[in-house]
Each structure stands twice: as structure tokens, then as C-alpha cells.
Amino acid sequence: MLSSIGPTGFILLAVIALLLFGPNKLPELGRAVGRTFREFKEGARDIISDDDSSTRKEQEKAKPLAAESQPAHKPADKRLPE
User: Fold this and answer.
1) How far is it, in rounded angstroms, from Cα 28 to Cα 26?
2) CA–CA separation, 70 vs 45, rounded Å?
3) Is pTM beyond 0.85 here?
4) What would the DSSP string read from start to end of 7-53?
């Protein structure tokens, strides 16, 4: 989406923002946008880590079941000697 906006477009957006909000409000607006992005990133990381931890728990539950399905001892090799 931003790839279609050239340098001229960014300059035009900056001028419009300056006219709308004034020079005193722009730093506050920038900080608010930065905080919003930071909170979004933290939330996304939390969701990803929650998914990872739930996947690990499911794998840990599956390990004992897989161990029970395999025989405790290995059967002897029944190949004929050469």
C-alpha cells in the first residue's frame, strides 16, 4: 500500500498534517502512534508465545502416549547368520 506513495505523496501528507494539527500537536501525535504500534507488537508477541506454549504442552502430553504405544524392549534381530 505504501509502495504506491512516492516522496511527493509523503511531503503532501506531512504538510496536510501540519495544517490540520499544528506544529505543537504533531510530536504528541507521533508519540501516540508509536505507543500504539509498540502495544500492537507486544500483543502480537504475547499471542504467538501463548500459541507456542500451548503447542509445547500438547506435544508434552503426546510424548507419554507415544512412549506407551512402543514396546519397552527391542525384539531380537531374526536375520540368518551369514
Assistant:
1) 5
2) 37
3) no
4) HHHHHHHHHHHHHHHHHHHHHHHHHHHHHHHHHHHHHHHHHHHHHHH
Distance separating alpha carbons of residues 8 and 20, to the nearest angstrom: 18
Contact 26, 17 (CB under 8 A): yes
CA distance 46 to 52: 10
What's the alpha-carbon Rg for the chain, to the nearest Å? 30
pLDDT tens for each residue of the chain, 82 residues long: 556 888 899 899 888 988 988 888 888 988 999 999 999 999 999 888 887 777 777 777 776 655 555 555 565 666 666 5
